[in-house]
Write a structure and sequence with these properties.
The protein is 30% helix and 19% strand. By secondary structure, the protein is of the alpha+beta class. A hairpin with a 6-residue loop joins strand 12 and strand 13. The chain is globular.
């Protein structure tokens, strides 16, 4: 959910600005996701210059906004808004839209429908989803601009303010471009919205990756073997020092499944539920989080922004953030429930500790099929590290997964029974997953609240404004780890740093992402 923008009418054409389009994460017209590296920014800047020349920017956006061409005024509005967003450094971490289609943004899930867009229903739903992504991101970016920067945006004369222009101009340009027509340029739009991977290829080239990958592979294999030896899919007998549990009691196992099973589906295969129904589904599957030591760095809390710009965590009120995602699998679209929480740090144990640093956190993802059956549980630290699979039913691991770095597949937690919740026991300090199983929940434990993950994209700032927890490159400032000095050769930007959803590279060898649309097909066969 995007919070309302505190902005009154903005006069059109208050200031003329050079015609320059921000592509902090994407080269102009080349997609919505590229790693936030110095080389990437140079390439994006060069691409933006080329697009500026091609677009013919003799007329400043503010001047165009005063002219009578509504389409030209809307394109000038988006260029002007991108100029202000780039100057303020408040681009949303989901990435920039392509210059040719400034009202659309994409995800890897949407990219998986590229070959199905000749179907008018699929194309319409795809465009609606891509437009909604851009609209949500732009409203956040507007909210994060200072008053002077908002006033400087060249709002078309026909629009009341910048907020109205984001919505109205998006609709107008979509019609003008004819993307909904069978003969429209939607193939070009799909190509422009292609989401590149998160890896920095020149890092690999400079780090002699064909050789260094073998040393990285040995380290990954050693870590995976250590996890296999210590992980248990049972609930430990001892009481944890800390237990966090949802505020609601679990319903019967069939209830959430029935909600999903009977829900109508849109042309992309996504269930269409009300807000109340989504809340019921998330509450039903909400996990219990347990830790072995009651110290500050093991306590769940709200991320916040300090006056020095660095993040911190307020542990007074435990919170788990939720968001839903989707994955195509065979002929259906699977629903994924994501539960995300944060710690103040992973403490540095000694001077050679390469993994400790500011902020830490974990994401638990549950994947359900169209009948509401739980297929898979996954865990991942919020850096994209330590991605682990726990199959539940209907999935058989392939003998040879189609990834260069084999995923870590551990014994599943079993199927949930009446009154049971997924209980996740974490090691203190490192926050590694030690135990994971469905089991009854004892009465004691602190209650946590659930909030929308998008809350993290617009937090109160010390200056009275608002800012995202995440930088334009999707990373969280100040959370870098010393391991980056050794693992940069893997191509992963800032290994160990916390990052925003849709930015998680999860393998150091080869290329793999938490939101790969073909993740399950490359790792499992369907046994349902």
């Amino acid at each position: 959910m995007v919070p309302p923008l505190p902005q009154g009418p903005v006069p059109a054409g208050r200031r003329a600005w050079p015609c320059r389009h921000d592509n902090r994460k994407a080269g102009a017209g080349q997609g919505a996701h590229t790693p936030g590296t110095g080389a990437g920014r140079l390439v994006a800047a060069a691409a933006a210059v080329v697009m500026t020349v091609l677009a013919g920017c003799a007329t400043p956006p503010a001047e165009v906004a005063r002219q009578g061409d509504p389409e030209a005024a809307c394109r000038a509005f988006f260029r002007s808004l991108d100029e202000q967003v780039a100057a303020a450094g408040v681009r949303d971490g989901i990435g920039a839209p392509p210059a040719a289609y400034p009202y659309l943004r994409a995800t890897r899930f949407l990219g998986s429908f590229r070959d199905e867009l000749d179907d008018p229903a699929v194309r319409g739903a795809w465009l609606d989803a891509a437009q909604a992504l851009d609209r949500e991101a732009r409203l956040l970016e507007l909210r994060h601009l200072g008053p002077d920067a908002r006033d400087a945006v060249a709002v078309p004369a026909s629009m009341d303010n910048a907020t109205a222009a984001v919505v109205g101009c998006g609709k107008r340009l979509r019609r003008a471009d004819g993307l909904d027509r069978a003969d429209g340029p939607w193939p070009q739009a799909a190509e422009a919205l292609r989401v590149p991977d998160e890896y920095v290829s020149w890092h690999r080239a400079l780090g002699f990756y064909p050789v260094s990958r073998w040393f990285i592979s040995a380290g990954v294999a050693s870590w995976q073997q250590g996890v296999r030896e210590t992980f248990e899919n049972t609930v430990p007998a001892d009481e944890p020092a800390l237990r966090y549990r949802p505020a609601t009691e679990p319903a019967e196992p069939a209830v959430a499944g029935e909600i999903l099973a009977r829900a109508p589906r849109d042309p992309l295969g996504r269930p269409e539920l009300t807000k109340t129904e989504w809340r019921q589904v998330f509450e039903h599957f909400a996990p219990v989080v347990e830790l072995e030591r009651d110290v500050r760095h093991n306590r769940l809390g709200w991320p916040l922004l300090r006056p020095d710009g660095l993040p911190a965590v307020d542990t007074q009120q435990p919170v788990v953030f939720t968001h839903r995602s989707y994955m195509p699998y065979g002929d259906e679209t699977l629903t994924q429930l994501n539960y995300n929480w944060w710690f103040s740090e992973r403490p540095v144990d000694h001077w050679l500790d390469l993994l400790g640093g500011r902020l830490d956190g974990l994401t638990v993802r549950l994947t359900l099929d169209g009948a509401g059956r739980l297929l898979l549980v996954e865990t991942m630290h919020n850096c994209g590290c330590y991605h682990q699979h726990y199959p539940v039913q209907g999935l058989e691991p392939r003998d040879e997964p189609r990834y260069a770095e084999k995923p870590l597949i551990l014994p599943g937690p079993g199927r949930p029974g009446p009154g049971e919740r997924l209980r996740v026991r974490l090691e203190g300090g490192t926050h590694y997953v030690q135990h994971l199983a469905f089991a009854p929940v004892p009465g004691q434990g602190r209650r946590y609240v659930m909030d929308d993950y998008d809350t993290l994209r617009s937090l109160p700032a010390p200056d009275g404004g608002r800012r995202s927890l995440f930088q334009p490159d999707g990373l969280v400032a100040g959370t870098e780890r010393s391991e980056r000095w050794f693992l940069w050769v893997s191509g992963v930007p800032q290994p160990g740093a916390m990052r925003q959803y849709y930015n998680h590279a999860t393998a150091f060898v080869g290329r793999r992402h938490f939101d790969d649309p073909d993740l399950l097909e490359r790792i499992y066969t369907d046994t349902r």
